[in-house]
Specification:
Blueprint (H helix, E strand, L loop, with lengths): L1 H19 L3 H18 L2 H7 L1 E4 L19 H10 L4 E3 L8 H18 L7 E4 L17 H7 L2 H16 L5 E2 L23 H16 L10 E7 L18 H17 L4 E4 L3 E2 L2 E2 L4 H11 L6 E2 L7 H4 L7 H11 L4 E2 L5 H11 L5 H17 L19 H14 L1 E5 L13 E4 L7 H4 L21 H9 L4 E4 L11 H9 L3 E7 L17 H11 L5 E6 L15 E4 L7 H10 L54 E8 L3 E2 L5 E9 L5 E11 L10 E10 L4 E8 L1 H4 L1 E2 L5 E2 L3 E8 L6 E7 L3
Bound molecules: alpha-D-glucopyranose.
Length: about 750
Amino acid sequence: MRLLYITLSFMFVVLVGSCSQPSPEVQDNEHFRRADSLLQLLTLEEKAGQMTNVGLTAITQGPFWNDFDTLLLDTAKMRDLLINQHVGSIQNKGVYPPCREEWHRIIKTVQQFVMEHSRHQIPVLFGMDAVHGAHYTAGSTLFPHQIGLAASWNPELARVVGEVTAYEMRASSQPWNFAPVLDVSMQPLWGRIFETFGEDTHMHNMMGRAFIEGQQGSSLADTTSVATCIKHFAGYGTPFTGKDRSPALIPEHYLRQYYIEPFRHAIEAGAITAMLNSGTVNGIPGHADHYLITDVLKGELGLKGFVISDWEDVGRLASVHRVASDARDAARIAVNAGLDMSMVPYDASFATDVVDLVNAGKIPMSRIDDAVRRILYVKFKLGLFDNPWHDPAGYTDFGSEEFAEKSYQAALESITLLKNDNGTLPISKDNPKILITGPTSNALTALNGPWSRTWAGDDPSYDDPGKKTVLEAMQDAFGAGQILHTPGTSYEGEVESEQHLLLKADRADMVIVCLGERPATEKPSDIDELDLPRNQLDLVKRLHKSGKPIVLVLLQGRPRIIREIEPLADAIIHAYWPGHEGGRALASLIKGDDNFSGKLPYTYPRYSGALYTYQHKVSDKLDHEFGLDGFNPQWEFGHGLSYTTFAYSDLRLSADTVFTDEGFSLEVSVTNTGSRPGKEVVQVYLRDLVATITPDDRKLVAFDKVHLEAGESKTLAFEVSYHDMQYMGLDNEWTALSSDYEVLVGGLPGELLSGKVFYAGP
Ligand code: GLC
């Protein structure tokens, strides 16, 4: 009897469970059904409003660009934009970062206003650039930027960053994140490479997927999940000159092979909206490219939600790209190309243009209906109609120690040791006297970089109390009395006198010089020269005269060239922009309480005239004598040192010949041969020896990060798929030529183990 009761209850639970939780497809159909019903009720004006996104300061008191330290909503502007013009989406903020209670007040007021005054009570969709944490909310957790996550080679960390970011966004009533950035960047001059996962496609596939799964959770309607906006589709990350928003030249088969793949993976992982490329690819502006937006992104890749423009970019089809005669013509081109929402962002002029264009027969109503249906679908899927705001008091983990610890772990695993001669690090001397200097040595802004409380992230008036700069963290770690400090120089200013610097250095056992670049993104991040500014190089040259060991710490968003000073440094650490806990993480690594495990996510160039990536071709290696020594970066992709050493053995491939659609697996053993525990990144590359399109020198197809105690060995297994063996042919189809492939496995720096597989064709 008892058994029968248990069995029946179990069946009941299973049935109820399956009834109360319909499959994602069924839920999606329901969201679309609701979107369709609502769509039927909307006028053209209301639809055009839903397609419009304005900046928050378009509805606050004062001018759009203001430097107010409080945001007061302006009822007349709200009535005009949200009610009369039906604007359906708002993004970002003014200058200062509101706290989460203030976000709650702002967003609740806006949503209530729409509920009270509009015909259909469609909630407004708020979007944010929470690219390394919910940084536009005061007190939130700030993580390493994406480039640092890539340097950790640990997608689990990206998942955690996604989760915490979503939690802290929802704690601020914000449901939609303009992240992750999936722009593979093969252009180290580009000022936004720090917002990406670096130069490799596979890295973007893995990291992007984990980040999205983290922030979208199991359901977008959960009050701890946010909707993803992947950006900037497609080819934005490799502008020819390196300047932001400038032209890229990428043949379609390369676009597909390197740049579109991360978006495909992201959409498979559930990414629901996408933002477009501000620049042009092969002369076609991203916002006018019907083929890429409609055929590829929505068609082939199957994006279910909507496509938003980047900032002001519809108008720029006329004012910058000159493919449209005026703003209205630009709206015609963009919407017909497949754009669903325009980030105008100052007013609702786009909505007026759309109405006129439809009435004039220049945009079909079916296109508008498709756009609005997608937008409403996202709003339903997010649960906005039920929960248009959230009570911040319910989010007790916001800005918690626990979240700070997660950020600390991410920083620890991302920071990369590039050079360490004669065991300079960790500092082994008892009670060492350390001189700390350089423009990034005592600034929180130098750890967090751009998109930190403000867009540029360079204003110290928004520094979070209690967070430690490198100097402060080093004082905590070694004792304040052990640390000397002098700024040395600013980012681009005068250098302190040699005499003064040497007097300071003479009193120390070693010198830590913190260099780097001033936080900046987008156009303000454009540079004409990849070398670190001359004054910073000079600072190191002057200090070198002291004869004291020198450690360089590079806090910067891209690989600034340091060829001249590299030989003067005994140890070099690349910290990227490691976030709020970066100072603590650096101090702990320098002291040896923790071990380095970061690896470069891009090739670190030696010369500004030699900007290769690791995918380079054999012809890139040709030197002056037609030998093959011409590829000579400062440090290669995947490079990074540890305080311990690792040895690889027993590479075993499951097959020596494979046929079409078959992959193979491999195993390799890795041993910690040093005396300290450490984490190693095991990298698996394929080198295609013959193809119809000149193949890359090698291609990353898998990696794993493994923790090993001193003396410990582990055997790791990897799968290499047939798809990994393929390349994109000129016909834009994945293909492979029957040929040999080298399989290269191991850690860098070091010799990779190699095996061979023959692909025999069908
Ligand atoms: C921009 C950026 C984009 C961002 C948007 C909203 O200009 O290019 O990445 O999401 O504005 O702030």
